[in-house]
Design goal:
The protein is about 25% helix and about 15% strand. The chain is an alpha/beta fold.
Length: about 290
Protein backbone atom coordinates (compact mmCIF):
# COMPACT_ATOMS: atom_id res chain seq x y z
CA UNK A 1 0.00 0.00 0.00
CA UNK A 2 1.25 3.48 -0.88
CA UNK A 3 1.85 5.77 2.08
CA UNK A 4 0.25 9.17 1.42
CA UNK A 5 2.33 12.11 2.58
CA UNK A 6 -0.21 14.75 3.65
CA UNK A 7 2.50 17.41 3.19
CA UNK A 8 3.07 16.68 -0.51
CA UNK A 9 0.59 17.85 -3.14
CA UNK A 10 -0.28 15.49 -5.98
CA UNK A 11 -1.08 16.77 -9.48
CA UNK A 12 -3.97 14.39 -10.01
CA UNK A 13 -5.60 15.39 -6.72
CA UNK A 14 -5.01 19.05 -7.59
CA UNK A 15 -6.78 18.49 -10.90
CA UNK A 16 -9.67 16.86 -9.04
CA UNK A 17 -9.92 19.96 -6.84
CA UNK A 18 -9.87 22.24 -9.90
CA UNK A 19 -12.88 20.31 -11.22
CA UNK A 20 -14.78 20.67 -7.94
CA UNK A 21 -14.01 17.18 -6.64
CA UNK A 22 -13.45 15.94 -3.11
CA UNK A 23 -10.68 13.38 -3.68
CA UNK A 24 -7.98 15.76 -2.51
CA UNK A 25 -6.24 16.95 0.64
CA UNK A 26 -5.67 20.37 2.17
CA UNK A 27 -2.14 20.45 0.75
CA UNK A 28 -3.54 19.90 -2.76
CA UNK A 29 -6.06 22.70 -2.34
CA UNK A 30 -3.41 25.07 -1.00
CA UNK A 31 -1.04 24.26 -3.88
CA UNK A 32 -3.85 24.77 -6.40
CA UNK A 33 -4.82 28.09 -4.87
CA UNK A 34 -1.20 29.26 -5.10
CA UNK A 35 -1.02 28.10 -8.72
CA UNK A 36 -4.22 29.98 -9.53
CA UNK A 37 -2.70 33.16 -8.13
CA UNK A 38 0.33 32.75 -10.41
CA UNK A 39 -1.59 31.44 -13.43
CA UNK A 40 -5.16 32.76 -13.26
CA UNK A 41 -6.25 30.71 -16.31
CA UNK A 42 -5.17 27.41 -14.75
CA UNK A 43 -8.50 26.43 -13.23
CA UNK A 44 -10.65 27.65 -16.14
CA UNK A 45 -8.42 25.74 -18.57
CA UNK A 46 -8.67 22.58 -16.48
CA UNK A 47 -12.45 22.84 -16.78
CA UNK A 48 -12.25 23.57 -20.51
CA UNK A 49 -10.08 20.46 -20.81
CA UNK A 50 -12.59 18.27 -18.98
CA UNK A 51 -15.48 19.78 -20.93
CA UNK A 52 -13.82 18.83 -24.21
CA UNK A 53 -13.16 15.32 -22.94
CA UNK A 54 -16.80 14.84 -22.04
CA UNK A 55 -18.05 16.17 -25.38
CA UNK A 56 -15.61 13.94 -27.27
CA UNK A 57 -16.59 10.87 -25.26
CA UNK A 58 -20.27 11.55 -25.92
CA UNK A 59 -19.50 11.88 -29.63
CA UNK A 60 -17.69 8.53 -29.64
CA UNK A 61 -20.55 6.90 -27.77
CA UNK A 62 -23.03 8.29 -30.31
CA UNK A 63 -20.82 6.75 -33.01
CA UNK A 64 -21.17 3.34 -31.39
CA UNK A 65 -17.93 3.15 -29.39
CA UNK A 66 -18.45 1.32 -26.10
CA UNK A 67 -14.83 0.74 -25.04
CA UNK A 68 -12.36 3.36 -23.83
CA UNK A 69 -8.68 3.36 -22.92
CA UNK A 70 -7.83 6.52 -20.95
CA UNK A 71 -4.03 6.97 -20.79
CA UNK A 72 -2.48 9.25 -18.19
CA UNK A 73 -5.94 9.31 -16.69
CA UNK A 74 -5.35 10.74 -13.26
CA UNK A 75 -8.24 10.11 -10.87
CA UNK A 76 -11.47 8.70 -12.35
CA UNK A 77 -13.68 11.37 -10.78
CA UNK A 78 -15.70 14.44 -11.75
CA UNK A 79 -17.26 13.34 -15.01
CA UNK A 80 -14.70 10.78 -16.07
CA UNK A 81 -15.42 8.41 -18.94
CA UNK A 82 -17.32 5.70 -17.03
CA UNK A 83 -19.54 8.39 -15.53
CA UNK A 84 -20.32 9.94 -18.92
CA UNK A 85 -21.02 6.62 -20.66
CA UNK A 86 -22.15 4.24 -17.89
CA UNK A 87 -22.70 1.30 -20.23
CA UNK A 88 -19.15 1.44 -21.65
CA UNK A 89 -16.15 -0.60 -20.58
CA UNK A 90 -13.28 1.64 -19.52
CA UNK A 91 -9.64 1.06 -18.61
CA UNK A 92 -7.85 3.92 -16.89
CA UNK A 93 -4.05 3.91 -17.08
CA UNK A 94 -1.60 5.97 -15.03
CA UNK A 95 1.93 5.33 -13.79
CA UNK A 96 1.64 7.34 -10.56
CA UNK A 97 1.42 4.96 -7.58
CA UNK A 98 -0.61 7.52 -5.60
CA UNK A 99 -3.13 7.71 -8.43
CA UNK A 100 -3.16 3.91 -8.59
CA UNK A 101 -4.02 3.63 -4.91
CA UNK A 102 -6.83 6.20 -5.08
CA UNK A 103 -8.22 4.97 -8.41
CA UNK A 104 -8.32 1.33 -7.36
CA UNK A 105 -10.35 2.29 -4.31
CA UNK A 106 -12.65 4.58 -6.30
CA UNK A 107 -13.39 1.85 -8.86
CA UNK A 108 -13.74 -1.02 -6.40
CA UNK A 109 -17.49 -1.32 -6.94
CA UNK A 110 -17.43 -0.59 -10.68
CA UNK A 111 -17.92 -3.70 -12.80
CA UNK A 112 -17.34 -1.93 -16.11
CA UNK A 113 -14.28 0.13 -15.24
CA UNK A 114 -10.77 -0.95 -14.26
CA UNK A 115 -7.44 0.69 -13.46
CA UNK A 116 -4.02 -0.36 -14.73
CA UNK A 117 -0.81 1.10 -13.32
CA UNK A 118 1.49 1.36 -16.34
CA UNK A 119 3.63 3.73 -18.38
CA UNK A 120 1.80 4.84 -21.51
CA UNK A 121 5.10 4.83 -23.42
CA UNK A 122 5.15 1.06 -23.03
CA UNK A 123 2.36 0.72 -25.57
CA UNK A 124 2.72 -3.05 -25.94
CA UNK A 125 2.53 -3.57 -22.19
CA UNK A 126 -0.46 -1.27 -21.83
CA UNK A 127 -2.35 -3.02 -24.62
CA UNK A 128 -1.56 -6.46 -23.24
CA UNK A 129 -2.98 -5.55 -19.86
CA UNK A 130 -5.95 -3.65 -21.29
CA UNK A 131 -6.85 -6.69 -23.40
CA UNK A 132 -7.83 -8.50 -20.21
CA UNK A 133 -10.77 -6.07 -19.90
CA UNK A 134 -11.36 -4.73 -23.43
CA UNK A 135 -11.96 -6.50 -26.73
CA UNK A 136 -9.24 -4.94 -28.88
CA UNK A 137 -10.76 -6.56 -31.97
CA UNK A 138 -13.58 -4.02 -31.69
CA UNK A 139 -13.42 -0.19 -31.83
CA UNK A 140 -11.83 1.55 -28.86
CA UNK A 141 -11.69 5.21 -27.91
CA UNK A 142 -8.09 5.98 -26.93
CA UNK A 143 -7.80 9.11 -24.78
CA UNK A 144 -4.58 11.10 -24.33
CA UNK A 145 -5.90 14.11 -22.45
CA UNK A 146 -3.30 16.74 -21.48
CA UNK A 147 -0.56 14.17 -21.10
CA UNK A 148 1.64 14.25 -24.21
CA UNK A 149 2.94 17.77 -23.57
CA UNK A 150 4.61 16.40 -20.43
CA UNK A 151 6.64 13.94 -22.49
CA UNK A 152 9.53 15.41 -24.52
CA UNK A 153 10.52 14.14 -27.92
CA UNK A 154 13.48 11.79 -28.10
CA UNK A 155 16.09 11.29 -30.80
CA UNK A 156 14.80 9.07 -33.59
CA UNK A 157 11.17 9.28 -32.41
CA UNK A 158 9.50 9.35 -35.81
CA UNK A 159 6.39 7.36 -35.04
CA UNK A 160 4.12 10.33 -35.70
CA UNK A 161 5.23 11.19 -39.21
CA UNK A 162 2.85 9.03 -41.21
CA UNK A 163 0.80 10.76 -43.89
CA UNK A 164 -1.87 12.91 -42.29
CA UNK A 165 -4.84 11.48 -44.17
CA UNK A 166 -6.31 14.93 -44.79
CA UNK A 167 -4.47 16.00 -47.90
CA UNK A 168 -2.07 18.04 -45.82
CA UNK A 169 -4.72 20.41 -44.46
CA UNK A 170 -4.38 20.25 -40.70
CA UNK A 171 -7.48 21.91 -39.32
CA UNK A 172 -7.22 24.56 -36.66
CA UNK A 173 -3.51 25.42 -37.11
CA UNK A 174 -3.81 28.58 -35.07
CA UNK A 175 -0.33 29.04 -33.67
CA UNK A 176 0.68 32.17 -31.88
CA UNK A 177 -0.27 31.21 -28.33
CA UNK A 178 2.80 30.13 -26.36
CA UNK A 179 2.29 28.25 -23.15
CA UNK A 180 4.59 26.37 -20.83
CA UNK A 181 2.27 23.34 -20.65
CA UNK A 182 2.04 23.33 -16.86
CA UNK A 183 -0.96 25.55 -16.21
CA UNK A 184 -3.05 23.01 -14.36
CA UNK A 185 -3.60 20.42 -17.09
CA UNK A 186 -1.72 17.56 -15.48
CA UNK A 187 -3.98 14.68 -14.45
CA UNK A 188 -1.26 12.43 -13.07
CA UNK A 189 2.40 12.62 -12.05
CA UNK A 190 4.02 12.12 -15.45
CA UNK A 191 7.46 13.60 -14.95
CA UNK A 192 10.52 11.52 -15.77
CA UNK A 193 8.78 9.00 -17.95
CA UNK A 194 10.99 6.28 -19.38
CA UNK A 195 10.51 4.45 -22.62
CA UNK A 196 9.58 0.97 -21.40
CA UNK A 197 10.59 -0.43 -24.77
CA UNK A 198 9.22 2.40 -26.94
CA UNK A 199 11.51 5.22 -28.06
CA UNK A 200 9.28 8.21 -27.42
CA UNK A 201 5.76 9.65 -27.46
CA UNK A 202 5.29 9.63 -31.25
CA UNK A 203 6.36 6.01 -31.52
CA UNK A 204 4.14 5.04 -28.59
CA UNK A 205 1.07 6.74 -30.07
CA UNK A 206 1.84 5.23 -33.49
CA UNK A 207 1.91 1.78 -31.87
CA UNK A 208 -1.48 2.44 -30.30
CA UNK A 209 -2.94 3.62 -33.62
CA UNK A 210 -1.63 0.53 -35.36
CA UNK A 211 -2.98 -1.85 -32.72
CA UNK A 212 -6.57 -0.67 -32.44
CA UNK A 213 -9.34 -1.90 -34.70
CA UNK A 214 -10.89 0.11 -37.55
CA UNK A 215 -13.62 2.35 -36.18
CA UNK A 216 -11.44 3.28 -33.21
CA UNK A 217 -10.82 6.91 -32.28
CA UNK A 218 -7.90 8.87 -30.84
CA UNK A 219 -8.85 11.79 -28.58
CA UNK A 220 -6.22 14.20 -27.32
CA UNK A 221 -5.51 17.62 -25.92
CA UNK A 222 -2.07 19.20 -25.95
CA UNK A 223 -0.61 22.60 -25.05
CA UNK A 224 0.71 24.48 -28.04
CA UNK A 225 3.41 26.93 -29.03
CA UNK A 226 3.59 29.19 -32.08
CA UNK A 227 6.72 27.87 -33.71
CA UNK A 228 9.47 25.47 -32.71
CA UNK A 229 8.70 23.12 -29.84
CA UNK A 230 10.02 24.41 -26.56
CA UNK A 231 10.53 22.82 -23.14
CA UNK A 232 7.49 22.84 -20.88
CA UNK A 233 9.07 24.12 -17.67
CA UNK A 234 11.69 21.41 -17.92
CA UNK A 235 9.10 18.63 -17.94
CA UNK A 236 7.98 18.27 -21.52
CA UNK A 237 7.21 20.08 -24.71
CA UNK A 238 4.62 22.65 -25.78
CA UNK A 239 4.50 21.62 -29.44
CA UNK A 240 3.36 23.70 -32.42
CA UNK A 241 -0.01 22.66 -33.92
CA UNK A 242 1.55 20.87 -36.91
CA UNK A 243 3.56 18.67 -34.58
CA UNK A 244 0.50 17.95 -32.45
CA UNK A 245 -1.38 17.04 -35.64
CA UNK A 246 1.26 14.41 -36.40
CA UNK A 247 0.15 12.35 -33.39
CA UNK A 248 -2.98 11.45 -35.39
CA UNK A 249 -0.91 9.89 -38.18
CA UNK A 250 -3.24 8.65 -40.93
CA UNK A 251 -6.36 8.87 -38.77
CA UNK A 252 -9.02 11.15 -40.25
CA UNK A 253 -9.74 14.20 -38.12
CA UNK A 254 -13.37 14.58 -37.10
CA UNK A 255 -14.78 18.05 -37.75
CA UNK A 256 -13.90 20.72 -36.73
CA UNK A 257 -10.37 19.29 -36.76
CA UNK A 258 -7.54 20.33 -34.46
CA UNK A 259 -8.79 23.44 -32.70
CA UNK A 260 -8.68 25.13 -29.33
CA UNK A 261 -10.35 22.86 -26.81
CA UNK A 262 -13.22 25.24 -26.04
CA UNK A 263 -14.04 25.42 -29.76
CA UNK A 264 -14.42 21.70 -30.36
CA UNK A 265 -18.18 21.20 -30.77
CA UNK A 266 -19.20 23.44 -27.86
CA UNK A 267 -22.48 22.65 -26.18
CA UNK A 268 -23.78 26.11 -27.02
CA UNK A 269 -22.67 29.06 -29.15
CA UNK A 270 -20.66 31.74 -27.39
CA UNK A 271 -22.89 34.66 -26.51
CA UNK A 272 -22.19 38.09 -28.00
CA UNK A 273 -19.79 39.88 -25.66
CA UNK A 274 -19.14 36.73 -23.61
CA UNK A 275 -15.48 36.63 -22.55
CA UNK A 276 -13.53 33.69 -23.88
CA UNK A 277 -10.99 31.68 -21.92
CA UNK A 278 -7.48 32.30 -23.18
CA UNK A 279 -6.51 28.90 -24.46
CA UNK A 280 -3.24 27.44 -25.63
CA UNK A 281 -4.74 23.97 -25.39
CA UNK A 282 -5.40 22.26 -28.73
CA UNK A 283 -7.88 19.42 -29.02
CA UNK A 284 -8.90 16.94 -31.67
CA UNK A 285 -10.52 13.60 -32.38
CA UNK A 286 -9.19 11.25 -35.05
CA UNK A 287 -10.97 8.26 -36.57
CA UNK A 288 -9.40 5.07 -37.89
CA UNK A 289 -11.39 4.50 -41.04
CA UNK A 290 -12.74 1.08 -41.84
CA UNK A 291 -11.16 -0.72 -44.82
CA UNK A 292 -13.19 -0.60 -47.99
CA UNK A 293 -15.14 -3.69 -48.85
CA UNK A 294 -14.01 -5.19 -52.15
Amino acid sequence: MVEFDPRTPNLARMYDYMLGGVTNYAVDREATDRLAELVPQAVPLARVNRGFQQRAVRHLAASGVRQFLDLGSGLPTQGSVHQVVPDARVVYVDRDPVVAEHATALLRDESRAAFVQADLLDAAGVLERAAAFLDLGRPVGVLLISILHFIPDTDGDTGGHARDGTGGHASGDTGGHPRDGTGGHARGDTGGLTSGGVRGPHAAVAALREAVAPGSHLVLTHSTSPGRAKPAAGRGTARPPARIRSFFGDFTLVEPGLVHAADWRPDRPRLVGEPSTASYLMAGVGWKTRPRQV
